[in-house]
Design goal:
The structure is a single chain. By secondary structure, the protein is mainly alpha-helical.
Length: 116
C-alpha cells in the first residue's frame, strides 16, 4: 500500500508540473522554481507534512520535497540555535542531496560527451 501511495502522490505532483508546462507559457525552469517555492510555502503552513505522511518518498523526492526539506531544516535549526539557524538550517538539512547532485553531475560530465 505504501508503494501505491508513493506512486500516486509523486505521480500527481509530477503530473501537475507537466500540465503547467504544457498548458501555459511557463518554461520548465519557472516550473521548477515554482515547485520548490510551493513546497516551501506549504511546508511552512504545515500542509506538506501531511502529504509526506501519506506519500512518503512520493512527496519527498520531487522538487516540492526539496522546498519542504529546506523549511523543515530552517525551523529545526532556528529552534535549536536561534535566528542564525534560519540561515544555516536549510543547508544542513539538504547538504547530502546537494553534494550528491554536484558529485554525480561532475562524474556524468567526465564520462559522457554531451551533444548540443
Amino acid at each position: 500500500m505504501r508503494l501505491l501511495a508513493a506512486f500516486l502522490v509523486g505521480g500527481g505532483i509530477c503530473t501537475v508540473a507537466q500540465l503547467i508546462v504544457d498548458l501555459t507559457n511557463c518554461n520548465p525552469a519557472v516550473v521548477m522554481v515554482g515547485s520548490v517555492s510551493a513546497g516551501a510555502i506549504l511546508s511552512g503552513l504545515g500542509v506538506y507534512e501531511a502529504l509526506v505522511e501519506i506519500g512518503g518518498a512520493g512527496a519527498t523526492v520531487p522538487l516540492p520535497g526539496f522546498g519542504h526539506a529546506l523549511v523543515q531544516g530552517m525551523m529545526e535549526e532556528a529552534a535549536r540555535s536561534g535566528p542564525i539557524g534560519v540561515l544555516t538550517g536549510g543547508l544542513k538539512a539538504t547538504s547530502l542531496g546537494l553534494s550528491a547532485a554536484i558529485i554525480l553531475g561532475y562524474l556524468a560530465a567526465l564520462l559522457f560527451d554531451p551533444k548540443g
